[in-house]
Write a structure and sequence with these properties.
Chain A: Forms a heterodimer with UbiV. The structure holds 3 protein chains of 3 kinds. Chain A is of the alpha/beta class. Chain A contains 11 helices and 15 strands. Chain A folds into 2 domains: about 15-180 and about 260-330, Aldolase class I (TIM Barrel), CATH 3.20.20; about 190-255, no CATH class. The longest helix of chain A is centred in the last third of the chain and has 19 residues, at about 290-305. The chains are: A alpha/beta, B alpha/beta, C alpha+beta.
Chain lengths: ~350, ~300, ~180
């Protein structure tokens, strides 16, 4: 059962992303304890073209994952559009029918519907709900029976320790991948520039609104017409995610909001486990299956090492060096020289 | 015939106590608004300072016949933040909840659902109405089409539209004022008090883009919803919220008063707003589901 | 070696030689392959959604020809044009042939080669993203795409992989990224 992989030794549950059935298969084969995915429409927060699952693919994916002993968590984690809530209700019904192990939701309308229509379906509170205090978490627990909360990506381990002492639901934290510096679910920067945002349409800084313009030897990355970053010859280049761009403030140019880095909390796994965290989540439903397979294998090895009571710190740091290699290969493109 | 009310939203910026007291005294004496939101909604570190003047400001506004609403902090982090929400919410006075924690602590008493809550549809609004929500100020990015759908489904809910001011776009665990000044958040020296309208954030090619205010990010542009009285009534809007900026807010309020009383049309309201020393260009793109920075003269 | 290849490009002499040759009936073979795929894997074309009617211009910059792909299921077409006769499309994907082939079989990560500018994307980025995510799901080997099965598939794939790998090294193409 979810959250209780081993009653005697509560070990960390590894929650891995899958943007396609091929990625789901890769994650299951690589040893993911749980796999999260979404339906191919605006009901999930990674609503990119060509990504995600049809209802049929979800049903098959759940069967395949269960065969490998993996759980499936389905994200219906955008905010339903007024007047069109039937699309989100239908998604909840589809998740329930698929035999998936839990639904990940943020919108009160979605939580309310799931609780009313599918009382046996396990509810996880999405990071998009931005619930980080005992009071807000209790609201979702008391009102909708939420059993797990995915914590915002900017909490410190000390804060998580304290929080876990005050709440009785499970907690899940991000340990690897993209990093939101703004509180998730409370950010309209993307829609300000492009009209599309995580809460409205399930995308942030969407590729369709990105342009790269060359000006002499400089290259500018623009989002919705706003220059988000610029690269001189021989300078590193990246995707113009709004909050990871370079801006001017107080007469200085800097990555004001966040440097273009991605999260890697692998070395913190033992501390997170001690902090009472139930599950560790890897970001990246938009990533390819090769990446998924590599990252999941590495994290599974680390979790298994901790379970075996071996020198987890050592295992983790060994894994970390392997991950850095992987990071350079996949996200490291952002750091390579732009020609 | 219904009337459209006006409210003054909570002040987002780090103004000195003296400035706050003077500002609200003028509002009490001169501003034709029915409702005023007060309290610190952005940074818990500012609370020990401005907590001292809120009771006095409350009295002054209440004595002038205004409905005074305490706004609660948008992103509670510390024990002090959480206690402030509990104390305000458990109190009998009307409060604005800007985090779901406030809703929980309200235990069914009436409250305002603030623009920082994620209320995007009629079903969510209905659940919260059942828990006591009497007014709903939609998230700024919510298109008018959605606002109308919610208003239609829930005719007893007062819809209060964020009609004027820099758009509150995001909150974060990190303080951008401190970061820009190479300070740590824990030792920020309250540097955000230097920018009473927020700190300008421009692009590499000097396009005005955003404004930082401590942990908050706002638009550089100034939202201005200037639909005329009949349009607002048709769409089910009950109140317009004007968000404080460091300009002559009485002038802003008077323009909107004339607009919602049907004395002037949109074009005149826009012209009069343009005549003020606004901190940014006018914007209203979100109304039609377009990028929020756009200004469409429609 | 007597020439220093330019990061994955076919050497100029070879490019020239290819230009003199008549346009081979490669488009016909590829069209058949895509349509065969539409019958065996209809899910892939469902995944492309509205983008299956998009016109993708695939431009291997080191050969004299470009391809136009319209991945419209059983009505899919792949046409080959001389570069000077190349039509416009919704999106254009340009890069050395060896890099483009590497994207099909998953040797390269699309993001990685995009950010190193070994791959250039123009036009409708969403369409290209849909195509890339669909390729990711398709997990095609060269032989599978061309319709081989069983033992022949293994032989063809083995040979192709070996040849491509050899070519990549010979041409100093970017190293594999996935």
């Amino acid at each position: 059962m979810l959250g209780q992989r081993n009653d005697n030794n509560p070990s960390l549950e590894l929650v891995c992303p899958a943007g396609t059935p091929a990625a789901l298969k890769a994650a299951a084969e690589a040893g993911a304890h749980s796999i999260y995915c979404g339906l191919r429409n605006e009901t999930n927060a990674r609503n990119f073209p060509g990504l995600n699952f049809s209802e049929k693919e979800l049903n098959a994916g759940v069967r395949l994952a269960h065969k490998h002993g993996s759980h499936v968590l389905v994200a219906v984690n955008t905010f339903a559009r007024a007047g069109d809530t039937h699309i989100w209700k239908r998604a909840v019904d589809a998740v329930a029918a698929s035999g998936a192990d839990a639904i990940i939701a943020a919108d009160i309308a979605v939580l309310d519907y799931a609780k009313e229509k599918h009382p046996d379906l396990r509810l996880h509170l999405s990071v998009q709900a931005a619930a980080a205090t005992p009071e807000s978490i209790s609201f979702y627990q008391d009102t909708f029976g939420v059993q797990r909360v995915v914590l915002p990506r900017v909490m410190s381990v000390e804060e998580i320790v304290k929080l876990n002492k005050e709440i009785t639901v499970e907690t899940e934290v991000f340990v690897f991948g993209g990093l939101c510096v703004m509180t998730e679910g409370r950010c309209a920067l993307s829609s300000y520039a492009t009209g599309k945002s995580p809460n409205l349409t399930g995308v942030c800084s969407p590729p369709g609104d990105v342009s790269y313009d060359e000006d002499g030897s400089n290259l500018y990355a623009r989002l919705g017409g706003f220059t988000i970053d610029g690269f001189g010859e021989g300078e590193t280049a990246g995707y113009p995610t709004l909050c990871k761009g370079r801006f001017k403030a107080e007469g200085e140019t800097s990555y004001l909001f966040e440097d273009p880095v991605s999260l890697n909390a692998a070395s913190l796994l033992p501390r997170l486990q001690k902090a009472g965290v139930t599950a560790c989540k890897i970001e990246g439903r938009q990533r390819g299956k090769a990446y998924i397979s590599q990252v999941v294998k590495a994290f599974r090895a680390a979790v298994d090492a901790m379970d075996a009571g071996g020198n987890a710190e050592e295992e983790v740091s060994a894994m970390l060096s392997a991950m850095t290699e992987g990071g350079r290969e996949t996200t490291g493109a952002y750091k390579k020289i732009w020609r | 015939m219904s009337k459209i009310e006006l409210s003054l939203g909570p002040n987002f910026f780090n103004w000195s106590n003296e400035k706050l007291v003077d500002f609200y005294a003028r509002i009490a004496d001169e501003a034709p608004v029915e409702r005023v939101y007060i309290g610190e909604v952005i940074c818990g570190k500012r609370m020990p300072f401005n907590d001292k003047v809120w009771p006095e400001i409350y009295e002054r506004l209440a004595n002038a016949g205004k409905t005074v609403v305490f706004s609660t902090i948008a992103l509670p982090v510390t024990v002090r933040d959480r206690k402030s929400i509990s104390a305000l919410s458990e109190d009998g006075e009307l409060v604005e909840a800007n985090d779901i924690a406030g809703v929980h602590k309200r235990s069914g008493q009436p409250f305002v659902g603030g623009p920082f809550l994620n209320i995007y549809n009629e079903q969510t609004a209905k659940v919260l109405m059942n828990l006591g929500m009497e007014t709903f100020c939609p998230p700024v990015e919510l298109p008018m089409k959605s606002v109308e759908a919610i208003a239609q489904a829930l005719p007893d809910l007062t819809i209060e539209l964020f009609a004027f001011g820099r758009l509150p776009l995001a909150v974060s665990g990190r303080c951008y004022h401190a970061r820009a000044h190479k300070l740590h958040k824990d030792n920020c020296q309250f540097i955000c008090d230097r920018d009473p309208d927020g700190m300008d954030v421009t692009t590499l090619d000097d396009q005005k883009f955003l404004a930082a205010n401590g942990i908050q990010t706002l638009s550089h542009s100034v939202q201005a919803i200037t639909m005329n009285r009949d349009e607002l009534l048709t769409k089910g809007i009950g109140r317009l919220r004007l968000s404080p900026q460091d300009i002559d807010m009485i002038a802003v309020i008077e323009i909107y008063r004339d607009l919602v009383d049907g004395k002037i049309e949109s074009a005149e309201a826009e012209a009069r707003l343009q005549g003020l020393p606004l901190p940014g260009a006018l914007a209203n793109g979100y109304v039609t589901g377009k990028p929020g920075h756009l200004w469409q003269a429609d | 070696m007597f020439f220093k290849p330019d990061r994955g490009l076919f050497p100029p002499a070879l490019q020239k030689a290819l230009g003199i040759l008549p346009v081979p009936p490669l488009g016909f073979a590829l069209t058949k392959a895509v349509r065969r795929l539409a019958r065996t894997r209809p899910d892939l074309f469902e995944r492309l959604d509205t983008y299956k009617r998009s016109h993708f211009i695939i431009d291997p910059i080191d050969i004299p020809h470009v391809f136009r792909l319209i991945p419209n299921g059983e009505h899919a077409t792949v046409e080959m044009f001389k570069r000077k006769d190349a039509p416009e499309g919704a999106a254009r994907i340009s890069g050395p042939l060896i890099v483009l082939l590497g994207l099909v079989d998953g040797t390269y990560d699309g993001d990685a080669v995009f950010f190193t500018r070994d791959l250039v994307i123009e036009g409708d980025t969403d369409a290209v993203l849909a195509l890339r995510n669909t390729m990711e799901e398709a997990d095609l080997s060269p032989a599978e795409f061309l319709g081989f099965n069983g033992r022949p598939r293994e032989v063809v794939d083995g040979a192709t992989n070996k040849t491509l790998d050899h070519l990549r090294r010979l041409l100093d193409a970017p190293t594999a990224t996935s």
